[in-house]
Amino acid sequence: MGDREHDPRTTGGLQSRLDRRDFVKACMAAAAAVGLPATVGLRFAEAAAAGLKPSVIWLHFQECTGCTESLLRTSHPDVGELILDLISLDYCETLNAAAGHQVEAALHEAIEKNDGKFVCVVEGAIPTRDNGIYCQIGGRTAQDILTDVASHAAAVIAIGSCASWGGIPSADPNPTGAVGAPEILKGSGKPVITIPGCPANPYNLLGTVLQYVTLGTLPALDDLGRPLFAYARVIHEDCPRRPHFDAGRFARQYGDEGHRLGHCLYALGCKGPETHANCSLLSFGEVGAWPIGIGHPCFGCTEQAVGFRKPLHAAAELPADAYPPIEPEHGTSATAWAGVAGLVGGALLGAGFVASKKLGETEEKS
Question: Looking at the structure, do residues 325 and 336 belong to the same domain, yes or no?
Answer without folding.
Answer: no
